Fold these 4 entries.
Entry 1:
Amino acid sequence: MSLTIIEKRVLDLLEDFGEDIEEIVKELESEGDAEIDSIYFIELIPFLESEFNVTINPVNIHDNSKRSFKSFCNLVEHLIN
């Protein structure tokens, strides 16, 4: 499975927060997406905003991503482009 730069970075950050990224990758491979507690997405905002020079509104996460790893990464990619 090929991951985007954003997906790889989000996985790295999730690992820093203590998440089991091997399980996440397995879920991505088998289901095409992974369910992540959305609080982690909120906690990742400052790191991603700083690194990619974007502004991520937490409301967008709730409205668009909820608990979807893929949707969250797509949201970040969309904000960058």
Entry 2:
Amino acid sequence: MIWLPLILTALALAFMLAVAAHDVREILSYLEFFRRHLPPDLPRDVRALLWRQNIWVGFPIRTALGLMFWLALAFILACRLAKLVMAA
């Protein structure tokens, strides 16, 4: 029967999207944390320099790579889900 693979694929896709949403939230909270800890009286050029250095040095690359991995898997699973739905 086609319904069991369809349900399992939809559940796996929902799990992958939940993990991706968590990774996005983690990246955004990191960026917000860094922005809040910059002193507000710094000149604009210095703030821009510190922001660029943070992106190159302190950015959570592992989280970003994990996010790309989960989104790639979610895309593949969404294609499989569409194929199962069209076959049903």
Entry 3:
Amino acid sequence: MIPTSRRPSPGATFLVLAAGALSFAMLQSLIAPVLSTIQSELDTSQSTATWVMTANLLSAAVFTPILGRVGDAVGKKRTLVAVLLTLAVGSLLAALAPDIGVLIAARVVQGAAGAVFPLSYGIIRDEFPAQRVASAVGTMSAVIAAGGGLGIVLAGPIVDTLGYTWLFWTPMAVVTLAAVAAQLFVPESPVRQPGRINWPAAVLLSGGLVSLLLVVGKGGTWGWSSAPATGLAIAAVTLLSLWIVAELRSANPLVDMRMMRIPAVWRTNLVALLFGAGWFAIFAFLPQFVQTPIGAGYGFGAGITEAGVLMLPMVVTMSAAGVVSGRIEHRVGPRAQLVTATALSMLTAVSLAFAHAEPWQIALASAVFGLAAGLAFSSMTNLIVSSVPAQQTGVASGMNANFRTIGGAFGAALMGSVVTSGLQPTGWPQESAYTTGFLVLAATSVAALGAALIVPSVRRATRTSPPDAEGPLDAVSPPDAAVPPDTAAPPDAEAGPRTAPITRSEPSRAR
């Protein structure tokens, strides 16, 4: 344990958290542009190669909320170090993979590190002064979002100069250093939610999410009415229903359903689901659009590197928007920022549908969508963090990330089915199919905008006791927002879940 007088500064803690989060975000997107290269290098089929992406997505969906809850219970620093080491091992295994089976297994191991996101947000809330939480959360969201964009931008140059295995060697080195730095410089968070992990609920949630994401991601390939797709759909509904029942009956739930019913939480998660659809679809299909040969009647015949350059404006504006978002939160609240983000997302999709003949039009749309993503990720996280008790930050932000993932799977599957519905004799999609697909994404953005408009405003938690007091931090909410249970709300209030009292793992200290 780090003595009080020697506790690291919030800045040092943030740098360590950012290194781990950036590495995982990049690993999620680095692979998409080079799947054809991996397919060729490992002598496998296209359908098998796509499992390199699918396996990672499934693993992250399962482990993100579970390990977020583990961090809330046993300590966020301890869990963070374990997660970063797991990511390093997965990256090493992927770099050395002799065949596609080992690579897919390595990507499953890497996916467990999706918990780095909720753990990082939880540590920020626990360790940073209250007035700096919003800014730090916004900047961390910018780092995560930019990492996803950087993966697409850097994939081409890395593969062209070093080979595809360096897509794993480089993050492995960074993550290993981040794990060591986390052990040395990240303080153990004092806020805990004691109790055992509800493993039966974890199994039900995992099975339900895997079934749901498989049927969404592979249903188009198998046929939506095929036996595998139908069986998985039934399994998803059954397992997730049983999970909800189990959580409602549990005295020690994995994910408190009453917390999930807080208006600011469930409405923000609904926005995450809808916004995630457009986010993943644009990330997956915009590079494919610009790489389409000019002979198809559209596209620019760009290579992997050139496609990444056209996506670079997105990375720049995404980073800037995420950083600015937290800094202006006291003037422009997260709800207003979220409404703006969804409106910008709608504008981007409409622009791509009707103005995609020139590279500058793609770059401009990319920049606007970067603004939308930076504002959305930061504001959604701040809304969640501001609306739940401190001891539930990890699992709540993990579930919000999962809603984005599920929405992304739906969005990518929907866009894929639309784009491939009408193919040219050459095998390339019709331009009209892309236009229709982008208009469908515009429709999901309209729905996200509607959901954002009903998200209640929340105010940042403030201290009700001196910094060295032992009491928990109380959240101050307006009448239309749910009052987290660590406030003075009566026990029978419907505003939020009843939770175990906050416990501290060490004597409190001045911040």
Entry 4:
Amino acid sequence: MPSAQVLSIQALEEFKGHLTRFNAQTQEILHATEIEIRRTLDWLHERLNHWRNEVNRRQEVYDRAWAAYQRCLESRRMRDKNGNVIQLPCPAEEAVVERARRHLAEAQAELRTAQEWTRLVERQAEEYHRQAQRLKAWLDGELPKANAFLERKITTLQSYVAMGISSGGYVTPPPVQAVGETFATAVGLAALGAGLTAAAVAVTRWLASDVRHALGAAGEELSARLISEQPGFQELPFDPPKHGFDRVFTAPGLPLIVLESKVVGAHGRAPFHPGQTRHGEQGSPEWIAAQAEKMADPTSAQWSPANERIAALVKELGPERIPAVAVVIQSETGVADVYVRPIGSDAWQPLREGVSLAEALQMSSLPAVDQSTTPIPSGVLQEVSSIQDIPLEQIDWEDVGRLDVDDYHKVTHEEIHQGLRKLEQVVRPAVQKGATADDFSRMDEAQGLDYANGYRRIYDAFYGQNECVVVEKVGDRYQVINGRHRLLLARELGLSSLPMRVRH
């Protein structure tokens, strides 16, 4: 797989926007040209009909004038005394005939001109239509493919950006690189049994406290904490579905790693056997591809914005190039075994067996554990404590009113659209992982983005105290104080909620 160095996602977004505008403008020009051609041909056909009628009418006038002239000549024909025929002239009738002849000739000339121009325009229109049809076929077929390709690339790159954000600051992820055949060599999992933190210990004790009631979720949490302990490993924003990936990670040289976890009883050590599904063995490339397809489908229960980004990564990288790790925890003995399915292999290999948690259980007392959200550092909580996600269905839309595209003056309709997409794909998931304003400033600096085109501006627009959407709760609805444009466009784009500051 070739290396990739991303210097500006904004440039790709702008290029995609230019393509979209080019498509719209070209389609508009094609439509306007077609109307003009049709209008011209209609006018020429009208002129043809007009001059045909004029030729017929003037022919009748000429015929009547000629008949009158002949009658006049007949009536003024005489003989002299020698019996010779003398023809007296009919100057008035002759003048009428001459005038009718000229008028008829003019109409016939106009008809020939109209016929020539009609044939010429029809030939040119036919040639234009052949060219225009090819262009329109490209606009309707190839350009959407190009836009879809760019959209996938932008989504993938923004997912990479989101990977690099943690509560400790922004870290620029490395380029996608070719990886070795052995997963253990690439990511250094051999030391998995060492250095469990208090958080991992707490989850272990929580697991032991009531294993019968929360085996699956607790096992996932513990497995995730174990993997997170490894240097360079970072858990990605993800909404674990009921069936599918348990967690997903990234590590240097490996953009995506799938984690599977199992909790077993005290039946003794046994070889690891992953579950079998109609899409293949759990953790296999076929199974990963099937789960990614569901996560990318908005109608699926596995879909969410975060999961759609993971699915885009799977599609971009190829499921066969995504390794899987399985952590098998024996709940009553506190022992964990770790297995890996390396890239390019269908076989699971033991990586670490008998990781003992007994000593770790004595290292700390049990803290509160909340599985529903990722803990956010206290500094971040203070920074955005007054900002909360408000469902758009609770907004008083009658009070908001309506806006047209021309009503977006301070920030354009397209700029707000791009900003909302950045919010959904990068900024909000990063904030939920603990990112601060400074993290987004560092991200912009790393990508060479100025403030107007960067992610810090999006953060300020939705989480900054001076620029965020501000609402006031009145009854069971929220009335908008600031941010009507953002709210209306968010509803138009189908978003379900937005970060807002509630004024009390």
